[in-house]
Predict the 3D structure of the following.
Amino acid sequence: MIAEIIAAGSEMLTPFRQDTNSLYLTAGLNDLGIPVAFKTIVGDSLEHLTSAAQIALSRADIVLFSGGLGPTEDDLTREAVAATLGLKMVRDNTIITMLHKRFAERRIAMPPNNAKQADILNGAEMLPNGNGSAPGQYLVTNFAGKRRIVVLMPGPPKELKPLFVSQVKPRLAAAMPPSFLARRELHMALIPESTVDARTAPIYQRYADVETTILATQGEIQLHFQCAKPTLEEAQARVDAVVEAIEHEMDEDIYSSHGESLEEVVLLMMGLRHLTLAAAESCTGGLLSERLTAIAGSSRYFLGGAVVYSDALKTTFAGVPAEVIEREGPVSDAVARALAEGIRERTGASIGVSITGIAGPGPGTGADVGKPIGLVYLGIADTDGTQVKELRLNGDRERIRWWAAQHALEQLRRQML
Amino acid sequence: MIAEIIAAGSEMLTPFRQDTNSLYLTAGLNDLGIPVAFKTIVGDSLEHLTSAAQIALSRADIVLFSGGLGPTEDDLTREAVAATLGLKMVRDNTIITMLHKRFAERRIAMPPNNAKQADILNGAEMLPNGNGSAPGQYLVTNFAGKRRIVVLMPGPPKELKPLFVSQVKPRLAAAMPPSFLARRELHMALIPESTVDARTAPIYQRYADVETTILATQGEIQLHFQCAKPTLEEAQARVDAVVEAIEHEMDEDIYSSHGESLEEVVLLMMGLRHLTLAAAESCTGGLLSERLTAIAGSSRYFLGGAVVYSDALKTTFAGVPAEVIEREGPVSDAVARALAEGIRERTGASIGVSITGIAGPGPGTGADVGKPIGLVYLGIADTDGTQVKELRLNGDRERIRWWAAQHALEQLRRQML
């Protein structure tokens, strides 16, 4: 059984908008052991939609449509599927009543063209939409002598997601041979993908029934494992076995084995150790603080700090002596050290962290003349003293800032191990 | 003339990866007046790729492939196109020499399967790839009696983008009737999309030859205009005319008419007025500072500030009296006012901005008990005094933080007008 996802909507054929529903739908289909073989994006044209529907029904067992179920002339998914399958549509009176009620609640008369949202393909089940006016449809049918499942879903993610989970997935599960999927993931920071692969491939390749995916994102490698078996216990046991073997190999390089982000792990470890943190950020300009405070509950461990973008504020908020900045330059081991110690002292946090560097695109100026773009000093001060790490980062301003913050988080984690 | 974009790669049929090249390619095709009618995403299967190629060649005049040009067994785009068009492939000796040279530079012997990257469709032009080993291909051919342009490009964006711009776009432009495209965009912050549409639709609808797109992103509405004419002057005149009419209507609600971001506009206005800025952020935790410092050159106007996440730091870094925090609660008009004034004074900036609020998911605690999630106070202190604005924001933690920072930027802009 293979699936095809068709996203209908001319806006997804512009440079501005992308189909994002398919990622979510793919995850849900994979849960049931159904691979997605094709994705098609098509505009609001009856001819193009009908052609796409024909092609999909000829090559995939399950065809999921998202979008094109609204009340306007441009909403043509129902019509295209009806034409492809040679089916009539039946106007559903319960939906008409419900639509009138929705409009009455907002004290508006229902425009006549909204009634077309009540048109159901002959033989299809209507799938109520709790978050919008267009219901979904689920149809088991034949196309050119082959059994096909056709699903129509509204385009807005806030309508599609709950409808898929509560109405579509259970129906597809019932149509599939029983199978249970177990999943785990391992996250590592700042290790090259090739290193992770070289060290882990000999392990995960021994587990042929576990599907392994390596994902490299900004300063992070994730290993995703999944396994389908007739019972959940069997599937879970296989996934746990490969995770355990890889944990043994990668050990402390792994920062999370249950999906937590690096920020969450750092905050969690601080909580366990009754520690608090403050940050003095120069080139990252608040990015490290922003990433930590994006986590709900971070205020228990992260006190705050200073964005010491100008030289003067390095003195005002972290007590860095002006003559040190002048002599060594703001991007220096000495300034990173003084910033980390200063912010720790001023805030009373157990740990002070500092970042100062040259993010570009311009080179170092003043006392930093001649220092290269990407040179970053990272300071961490705690009761045991202060450590400064010199980094040489590549890439543009955005990448250098992100990796500098990533190094700060990973360094904090490693020091707390 | 219509185009279809085919993205080849099984990773784009997982829940983890998406085709992003097509947005870039679509913009480039639209520049030439070529609309994209279909996008297909297909895995690394010769059967599926060949079927997708057949379908695309039967319905689109121009078919662009991205991906599947590498050296591995999974890289099958060349083979699929050759099979569909019934063409032989010719091994190109210049490419073989170049491949050997690339490997020699890294002091590795070339693995034999890399040679297949030198296979060129009979009749196709080879498009040199300055950033990778797989060259592109450009072929003008016939399929079922119709003229077709087929373009093969490598998948990695860093290879595809320069190759498309320097090699593909000029060839497509030469193949199209001469047409010049002019574009403009207008940006507005914090205005509902429906309001923008109600006020501007009567204007832009009078310009039937100008294509208008409304995009709503986080706290921002963009109006994009484009117009194609036989000369650039004609196209530019039409786009400028609609922009001018809408500028007249929306006036100061428009923050940018040449594509600058809100952050850039605020910094630009500060530069023109010789002003400097410092920020004291509580619930946004550094987001406002991070957004401003993401702009290169921001250090001339943005000095920095403090992330006053804990109550104590509101006193330490911005001198907010502890009794005011205790009496009014950290999320209050009085604390926002004291933060803005305090950070201005401590840093010596011409303007001090402060944000304090309840971002959720938890409700207010301590002296803030009973205050709702989404309540945010925004303070701005300058030589004329201090203004505090109370905001009631909706949504989750991430949305509330983003909108609070957006309001701060927009308020700064409006005060500088």
Summary: Residues 3-175 of chain A form a domain with the Molybdenum Cofactor Biosythetic Enzyme; Chain A fold (CATH 3.40.980.10). The longest helix of chain A spans residues 397-416. The radius of gyration of chain A is 28 Å.
